[in-house]
Design brief:
Number of domains: 2
Number of helices: 9
Radius of gyration: 26 Å
Structural class: alpha+beta
Number of strands: 17
Order of helices and strands: EEEHEHHEEEEEEHEHHEHHEHEEEE
Strand content: 25-35%
Distance between the termini: 41 Å
Oligomer: single chain
Length: about 350
């Protein structure tokens, strides 16, 4: 959990980083940004920090040595020598420019800032913020005159729409620092998360909860060895298990979720293959993250899709659904038993 209620905006530098494929180059600032009034500081903090609302954390990574991760290395030097902020902000900007080679990437202002007194997971730490503005909005301005009004327009940054952001908290250095990001969803935006930052999701309770639920849902929706009714039962029982328990345990999960021992055995084998093929860690025990459960729960939809004609939404009691085959008509059918209409 991140708490920015007492955060203070420290030294701030802004550089202009263009698109490398269009040879737009970089324009460096040699002077610290003059933040002016307290109102301006508050507006910048709102622009930088308000999008950081979830509990998904990351760590810097590298295939051979974490010290070779460029942003990690530059950030470490800033934390060790705060006076090097300008020099390292230029190094970070150069690295960002090298990764900005997709033709759809827009150039923009790149902010490198010090953030003081952040609270993350109950720890008070300083942080480095990396924020990029890529898109501008047009604003109308109406001025009152003696005999009426005058209208004009200006182009500027919408402080409610941060394009890309990264906060590097000065904690968990040996694991690759604790990192939180904001990114747009377009394919070319992967350069921010993957090419520029090179981060991996942190292995914590949120991560474990999310991974297990995604794996269980995928098992229920893609396994041809179990019936449609049983697929729905598995999904509904999985949701019930995570709703009613604070801690996850593989053995208790299999006991409570699977009424058919054969399906439980199939799931165990599927889980082992899933972790090997995807390289996604699926823990056997962890504390269930309620926020992760709420986020993933939306993707659990117990629906029987019948050709393109019908969708049957099943919320429970799968024993009241009977599947059959009408030989005379050559069609499959479902019979639904219920007490009364609602």
């Amino acid at each position: 959990m991140i708490n920015f209620s007492d955060v203070r905006l420290g030294r701030t530098f802004v550089h202009k980083v263009g698109n490398k494929s269009r040879e737009e180059g970089i324009k460096f600032s040699e002077q610290e940004l003059n933040l002016g009034s307290e109102l301006m500081k508050d507006l910048l903090l709102k622009y930088f920090l308000s999008p950081f609302k979830n509990e998904i954390f990351y760590n810097f990574s590298h295939s051979t040595d974490i010290e070779l991760n460029e942003v990690y290395s530059f950030a470490a030097k800033i934390f060790e020598q705060p006076d090097s902020l300008l020099e390292q902000s230029k190094n970070i900007s150069r690295h960002l420019y090298e990764q900005s080679n997709h033709p759809k990437i827009n150039g923009g202002e790149f902010y490198v800032v010090m953030l003081k007194d952040c609270v993350v997971e109950d720890e008070l730490v300083n942080a480095i913020g990396l924020f990029k503005t890529e898109n501008k909005d047009t604003y109308l301005r109406v001025d009152e005159k003696d005999d009426g009004f005058e209208i004009d327009f200006h182009t500027g940054v919408n402080i409610n729409k941060l394009d890309k952001g990264c906060i590097i908290f000065n904690t968990e250095k040996t694991e690759g620092y604790l990192v939180s990001i904001v990114d747009t969803k377009s394919k070319e935006a992967e350069y921010w998360k993957t090419s520029f930052l090179n981060i991996k999701q942190r292995e914590d309770n949120y991560h474990f909860t999310q991974n297990f639920l995604d794996m269980a849902r995928h098992f229920a929706e893609t396994n041809d060895e179990i019936s449609t009714n049983e697929q729905i039962e598995v999904k509904n029982n999985t949701i019930a298990y995570f709703s009613q328990n604070e801690f996850f345990d593989t053995d208790s999960f299999q006991t409570e979720v699977f009424s058919n021992p054969d399906t439980a055995a199939t799931f165990k084998s599927y889980k082992e293959n899933y972790t090997k093929e995807t390289d996604i860690p699926v823990a056997d025990t962890f504390e269930i993250s309620n926020n992760a459960f709420k986020d993933v729960k939306r993707r659990f939809r117990s629906v029987i899709k019948l050709d393109k004609n019908f969708h049957v939404y099943v919320h429970g009691n799968e024993s009241r659904i009977v599947q059959g085959y009408d030989e005379a008509k050559g069609l499959k059918y479902y019979t639904l038993y219920y007490d009364e209409e609602s």
